[in-house]
Amino acid sequence: MKAIYMDHNATTPLDERVLEAMMPYLKENFGNASSVHSLGIRARSAIEEARGKVAQAVGCKPKEVVFTGCGTESDNLAIKGVAYAHRNKGDHIITSRIEHHAVLHACQYLEKQGFRVTYLPVNGYGQVDPDDVRKAITDKTILITIMHANNEVGTIQPVAAIGCIAKERGVYFHTDAIQAVGKLPTKVDDLGVDLLSLSAHKLYGPKGVGALYIRKGTKLDPLLHGGPHEWNRRAGTENVAGIVGLGKAIELAIEGMEEEAQYLTALRERLYEGLRDRIDHIRLNGHPAQRLPGTLSICFEYIEGESIIMGLDLKGVAVSSGSACTSASLEPSHVLLAMGVPPAVAQGSVRFSLGRDNTEEQVDYVIKELSPIVARLREISMFSPEVPFSAMAGPRLRSH
Questions:
Q1: pTM of model > 0.90
Q2: Packing angle between helix 360-379 and helix 305-314, nearest 10 degrees?
């Protein structure tokens, strides 16, 4: 069978229709969008057309969309930009323990600059309690940043409820919606957010381009200086082809979102039910229903997830253990630990993130091939179902 890709939360293949839209701006229409000649005007027009598509997708005005180099930059611009712009009003930020490291590391950086950060807990499904957000707000709180949907387990957060609380208390609210845009409804007024991050390569668009929605009137300091680009909020010559690709990708994603969500949910459930029927001692991570359509995170107890990933890779199947940005880490997932999963069990996590190119045939192949892989790894593991979890919570599991 042809190689099977089930790691779409890490990145998606470039849609041929997106590449087709980009090609003219990689070749003949190569102008700098700041130039006043016809090539520059053509590039500027393409950027503004893409900006309009992003604005339509999230329900805002085009001038509220700022293009960036990636989702991580969008998160950093939102968090650091608001923090520095409002330092005279307060120094307190609220986030959660399961955020992407683009958010967590930005907050940790700000702590070194004198800001205070509250890291809210989550329940066993990986959800933040809006009441915890309400209780954490002080008269010095200037920003709340809670992701829309988790990149590892797929759990959807009660963003709209948190947005209502933020509005009541007059606190800016940012959501990292990088995994959600194009998969879930993400209209900014419905969510009640002031800032929203998104990225093209999670939408079958190109790598190296993202966007940040910034509600009109939101004061924000830029991270980059050097030119008046993006209304003085993001200096630097625009990635015209990438921006065009983002515009086309988000347009296609919104057009097919409902149908694709139904398709991926059915595939996800077929995969989970097949694995559950064939393999004992597996644990579903995240909310069973309030979850991204194509995301399935499972802990295979008594073995390491990375060994499963390697075994599947030998069978032509690409999956991951969690966030692609932390795949080289030897530590258990911070998301799973925050959800109360024992460290040794968390080491056995595998994330299947399905996409529009996956099929029932591929899902059935993975189910068939994974069962003997798990059985073989458990045979050579130093642990077994008879070993209590209390004995597994210390050192990192290793297979012989």
A1: yes
A2: 130
